[in-house]
Amino acid sequence: MRSLTISTVRITQRTVMRVTQLENLANEWAPSLHFLVPVASRPKFDEIARMTSGGLSNITVALPTEIKTMRSRMGAIPMIRLDKPEELQPGDVVAVNPAHHSLQVLLRESDTHHALFLTNRCNNNCMMCSQPPTRQDDSWLLEEALSAIRHVRHAPARLGLTGGEPLLYGEDLRKVFDAVAEYLPGTQIELLTNGRQLSDPAVSASLLNGLRTPISWFVPLYGHADFLHDFVVQMHGAFDETLSGLLCLQAYRQPIQLRVVLIEPVLKVLPQLCAFIGRNFPFVRELALMGCEPVGFALANRTQCEVNLTHWASTLEHSVHLLDQHAIPVLLMNIPHCALPKALWSRATQSISDWKQTYAHECATCAQKKHCCGLFSWHKKSWGSAPIASIKEEIAS
Amino acid sequence: MSRFKNTLSLFLASIPMLVGRSYAIAGPDAGTTNIDTSYDPITLRPLNYPTDNLFASHRSHSSHSSHASHSSHYSGSSGSPSYELPKTPVYASPTTTPSSTTSTSNSSTVPLATLREQAQTGQGTPSMTLSEKRILQIMRVQIALTRLDLYQGRISGDLDAPTKKALVLFQHVKGFSENGLMTTETLNALGVLAVQ
User: The pTM is what?
Assistant: First the structure.
């Protein structure tokens, strides 16, 4: 997430705001929203000052640091000061945090991937978790997400909801679904969840009955037997609840993407897992095989999580073949082409969010670069899916 | 002690005596999740058409008769309600002068308002009553006039005498008819989107 260092004046608590140009303020202004208006000159500042003295209290001014504090004759205007106001874009939904002298860009219109972070708590403890869970009550994140949804200017095609485990909110999560339906008509939610809470009929009924917004459910599955999955997620009983949740989602005709992160204990049983999914969950929309991000718990469990996928090429091909036989579409995510057998290149997607995607210097000469997902921006700090190699060969895709 | 049991046998050894078996639940059919990914074509158009401007003639309801015809049009459908926008502008720029009678709520405008409501997005205010929309539109006009330093009063949402005076001043500068109303022409020149 993008974070900028700021100083604040007359802002007392963490506040969600929409970045708006002064020229558009009259069009976008609404009493229930808070606006952050970048201003770089005295006359424009005076325009805001007139509005504030006219009674508008939901406008904050963003000033460049090099301009000395503008003293308003007409009232006390909330202000933030930052080095480069041009880093803010119109339509950005930001959280201004005076206690930490920081501003986070929660949502940006020009991004290709939009996501809201709902909680850092989780009821699993996956050995390769890229976002290690914490125990503290962070339900303020839910309120902030609701506020962020209200501040969005244009409904994006898709909005990711992530964590942690968002379903830990139980029926309160429905507030987010309904807010998206109300404020972002046309937006499809993509929810990352382990689905365990849906095994509780009360929770699933309150979340899924009469949904007004389309949701894609992204659910991980790591084994075809309880102890295999439970081992990877380090939680006894998780497999049963996740399976129950998947069946519940199907009962409500919800689209499911199963997600399998390719770490060693999973790769060892991958063909069996794929056959299990093909037999028992033929209704899933697709299955995503994902490279492991070398961050978070994966670093602590390096012996299980560090794999060179080129050594598992035949396993991958066999597994994809099994899924093909069951007519389950396969996506390969977060794996560069040089880590995959050629036959699977066409299944690889450009899955790494633009703000954390990068390429290595070997990639400059690679013929596959334009089709490849590239690398996580932190790839240099740790291992990758395989040694990075430049591919000479062009393949029609 | 480590947070992980990082071999399978160690993990199995830690299994509790009773692991609750959950159960599959049947649920009713949820709605379909088809998404319309088609895009609206981009067309050149003025900021607001007269039909967009719900409050062109504050206090004047000279177009009541056309509302009535809409209602009959609206109720004529059987089953799924459909409502076609009239081809001719309904809320024409007012030629009448504001009368002294105060406005009353007009039920025949509701179908039009609810129809427009569905089209609204990104304004942070999806479900507003007609009077709330009117207040918001006046406030936005007051913000635009404040920016131009034509209006120095409170941004109140009340189309009071100072606001009308500022509107007349703006209309005078632009060479429009100086009626102090939020006509479509005036909104377009101010660059204020009509609240729908």
Answer: 0.80
